[in-house]
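We recall that each integer encodes one residue's backbone shape. We quote one record:
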Amino acid sequence: MEGSPIPVLTVPTAPYEDQRPTGGGGLRRPTGLFEGQRNYLPNFIQSVLSSIDLRDRQGCTMVVGSDGRYFSRTATEIVVQMAAANGIGRLIIGQNGILSTPAVSCIIRKIKAAGGIILTASHCPGGPGGEFGVKFNVANGGPAPDVVSDKIYQISKTIEEYAICPDLRIDLSRLGRQEFDLENKFKPFRVEIVDPVDIYLNLLRTIFDFNAIKSLLTGPGQLKIRVDAMHGVMGPYVRKVLCDELGAPANSAINCVPLEDFGGQHPDPNLTYATTLLEAMKGGEYGFGAAFDADGDRYMILGQNGFFVSPSDSLAIIAANLSCIPYFRQMGVRGFGRSMPTSMALDRVAKSMKVPVYETPAGWRFFSNLMDSGRCSLCGEESFGTGSDHLREKDGLWAVLVWLSIIAARKQSVEEIVRDHWAKFGRHYYCRFDYEGLEPKTTYYIMRDLEALVTDKSFIGQQFAVGSHVYSVVKTDSFEYVDPVDGTVTKKQGLRIIFSDASRLIFRLSSSSGMRATIRLYAESFERDPSGHDQEPQAVLSPLIAIALKISQIHERTGRRGPTVIT
């Protein structure tokens, strides 16, 4: 601290009507909106900071991180300047502004911070023409619950001014403590730049048997792996954990330099976008492949020759093999959670283990409440996210280490593990079809009319004949969730159609970017007979898809010939 105190300014502003967080305290918009609209980012940051009670805010510690996408450095500087002006006492920031979403959750919990701000648009593209986002995590390390998101939105609609220290400058590249004397503040404002991996790595060491994984990756007959960080935040984590700590060769890790535009790619770990990894795995040289999204909370698993493990299967297989992980041998397993659209493969494992399954709306914040109350040990979503009660976020690298632990313990390949699981529990064929970039008004009317159709009493008992298949409707509803912890009711979370053979169709509206809307269509069918486990999911599910298209008229009403993405 040198020179005169840094001034704290109050800047007049006007509210924007479109700053409602889409769930979990997150605002995701085109980058140009954050960059070009006057005070768009400061308005939302002020609304987030003002949502914290003044008594809790003054002198508190918060964590700040980003996935490194375009505009992150500018946004980080604004967050720091506004946190100082709003009475935050200390910020913990990853070096160069980099922190994965799981690492932010980890640090919040480790140091008992008041919360954290994560600058990410998750798996969405970056760059000036991409998307940018701001996400608020609360003191338990998890996404903000709906009551906090609602408070942020209400503040954003009436905001008249924000506080900022525009002359405050920090060096994000220099590890260690930086202190600043501010006008009218009794204590200096402190910023601590930390290694983005170290605290999170220390937590992983307490969960896994690193020696067993290292032996798998370095010993005789070592498993050759290929891990794609997709030029997102996970590059430093992959190199430090899998290569430096666990001994995987350096060339096992690809696309590990975080780039502002993710190398011009879509940082989404699925078969549509992780094609570099998929092609490498198809060659047969590698026995295990994984990819991560931009902020490190989502993941994809591939086996030799490109054998794909669906997210729902991955969740169920992890649940069935938790005894391979020292953490769960010590802590036990209390229950499982899955989002409603996620396949019911997890439920069969839970039944065999005699533990409850909690079916929630999409959104990790619902799992956080269950874990805080001690009800849930493992949870996951069909959108490539899995995690446990070690954090309050989904955690891609944790899931990869679980898979490597299972392989080390069982001494089987990825494909052998999956096929053994199907043989024991049956196979759930499952697909998700995304109709992206739709007009919100169009999607509203499609979902309104579909709800009126399927929730009418006369729809129960209807039969649909497609080829040689006849499907009889036994249950329909508009899914609502009553939180077993606090009784909070969350309504209109998707339309479900359940048939007599336990097949399911689900329609759900998603608007994570806020500007355009997405309708997601999910289809699921169960096959017990092992002789039927080698079919292509889309072929098995085609009769259900035909029913879904017929009753929704989605192609006719949107002008689309098919979905944007199939997973």
Q: What stands out?
A: Residues 47 and 152 are 5 Å apart (CA to CA).
